[in-house]
Specification:
Radius of gyration: 20 Å
Shape: globular
Largest sheet: 9 strands, antiparallel
Number of domains: 1
Number of strands: 9
Mean pLDDT: 84
Strand content: over 45%
């Protein structure tokens, strides 16, 4: 009887340890291969623009990247503590975006630069809040 209890306890502890060591999920591979500019929140793309069908602006005095439609009714804005320059770099970001006709925002996000493309696009990922964004840094 004692062996069964110890065995059960060992199994429970092993399962708990495995759950605690959940592997870093990372940025969605589809997002890493995206062609346009996108914002993904909790695994769901909430903004997706082809480069030829959107407006992109950068405000150097605020390190602010804006991506949106021609009327800016659908958009996302990242206000960063610095301009991303290298893969692995961490940025402090305040983010706002439109979703289903309402304004959403999150402050104090910590994005990591996952990838910088030859075309100047930058893939950013916040693991804690599960938010991915693609911006175009070649506009500044």
């Amino acid at each position: 009887m004692m062996k069964k209890i110890l065995y059960s306890l060992a199994v429970c502890l092993s399962l708990a340890a495995l759950a605690a060591c959940e592997e870093n999920r990372g940025m969605d591979p589809e997002m890493l291969n995206a062609e346009g500019l996108s914002l993904e929140v909790n695994g769901r793309i909430v903004q997706d623009f082809a480069e030829s069908q959107c407006q992109m602006t950068f405000n150097a005095s605020r390190n602010e990247f804006r991506v949106g439609d021609d009327k800016m009714t659908e958009y996302y804005i990242l206000k960063c503590n610095k301009v991303p320059t290298a893969k692995g770099e961490t940025l402090n970001v305040d983010l706002s975006w439109t979703q289903s006709g309402s304004l959403q925002s999150r402050s104090g996000l910590r994005f990591v630069v996952e990838k910088i493309g030859d075309d100047g696009r930058v893939w950013l990922w916040d693991e804690k809040d599960a938010i991915a964004a693609i911006i175009y840094k070649s506009i500044y």
